[in-house]
């Protein structure tokens, strides 16, 4: 084992130890295992939520896209800011309703608002399906880090299996308390590593930011602006609009808002979180620095650029420390995703379908589902694809919940249960069809201007979703409304 | 529902800066702090978001105190 892998292994041991310590002296009921017995203070909640933002996606995907695509990567910096603006107005309403009705999960919200168990099951299924690509992304990230820092002695495929195994054991051992403690360690490390790399690498190789960007612009003219076609300004704007609406629709993100002490937490976070997000800028700098130093990484291999440059620049021990930060950014969100999807399947899909089941049975099922979810994700992770498109796919799925959610916020929901269900089903069907067939607006309408055909395809699914939701809602309302619509 | 007040319109500024502004700010030259102009523009919008949301938060707390309703349960 080389020095880099040894350092990473040491950090993994620490993370496991934190997980074990966190559960000591507690009986692990389902509640304790998933929401930490609701004993988390504001700082812990903040860290858990921030822990979801800085994932392997940020670390490897952000730098990989800056390296491989250039300016289109800037979308990652945009959507969070808009999502926090929306959160200021949206989350207090959600939180108040959830607190008054003692809700636990995102599915509970739909069930309570629409008085429809079917909608709860549907929303849960959508959430789990959306989380899978997000989880696959973490596993791929783990695989990349382990195989790169092994300096070639571990193949990427073996590394993905090692990463999956680590994640499963970690989740079963620690539950959410372990995640929260490791999140603290992870956030400190990733902040330090990202800022250090983003400051050091451009200075070391180019003598500063502007010389670096000028060198890139000279070598690849137009790389630092959005292209006229393809990932154009239209693509960026529509992608940002879509992903900012989806930001809080993830089941784990939605439910973690319930744990806040009061609604003012969200109002304060709306001002603080955008600043926290600027760490991404340094990740971009590291990716840009790699362009002229480790050239030639094509397609999904662009995700390797950060680690390739780090290996070229630093001795193995330091590479290990940076790799360890990367492993933690996969372990913490990965465990949250795995935990949430297994719990949602057991609690919000299996239980309402089967009827009266004991809490203990649900808890056992949730735990048993962890390796199942892991196997599915690992199988998908072995099948290629780079990191950013994986996250965008997850976002396309999960954002389809947004219209039904927003139209339920009034005293009585504007949409009807049938309308909400029909809208979501239409949206998801459109997403599946569009992503499976690889259809784009540019291919369908080659003569239309790029300002229209470059729209993110998720927008099309969203429009179909809203149209069906409104239509079916109007048709299934009581007689007076129906008469008026006719 | 969070009651909408006139100053909430400020929240739209950084959002418009991104969704409408980025297509117009899409150029390299005019480096700011060493950043290509389009990247500097986006960073500016993110900073503006933080400032605007802090301001709105302060105004909302002040308005809640004036009305004596304690600003809800928070």
What's the order of the H and E elements of chain B?
HHH
Helix share of residues of chain A? over 70%
Number of helices of chain B: 3
The mean pLDDT of chain B is 86
* Major sheet summary line of chain B: none
Structural class of chain B: mainly alpha
Tally the structural domains of chain A: 2
User: What percent of residues of chain B adopt helix (DSSP H or I)?
Assistant: 55-70%
Radius of gyration of chain B, taken over Cα atoms and rounded to an integer in Å: 17 Å
User: What portion of residues of chain A belong to β-strands?
Assistant: under 5%
Find the count of extended strands of chain A (DSSP E, 2+ residues): 0
Please specify the SSE layout and strand pairing:
The complex is a heterodimer of chains A (486) and B (74).
Chain A: H1 3-23, H2 30-35, H3 42-53, H4 56-68, H5 75-100, H6 106-114, H7 117-149, H8 156-206, H9 209-219, H10 233-246, H11 251-256, H12 264-276, H13 279-293, H14 305-313, H15 316-354, H16 359-381, H17 387-398, H18 402-406, H19 417-437, H20 441-444, H21 450-453, H22 457-475, H23 479-485
Helix pairs in contact in A: 1-8, 1-15, 3-8, 4-7, 4-13, 4-15, 5-10, 5-12, 6-7, 7-8, 7-15, 7-16, 7-17, 7-19, 8-9, 8-13, 8-15, 8-16, 9-13, 13-14, 15-16, 19-22
Chain B: H1 12-19, H2 21-24, H3 37-67
Helix pairs in contact in B: 1-3
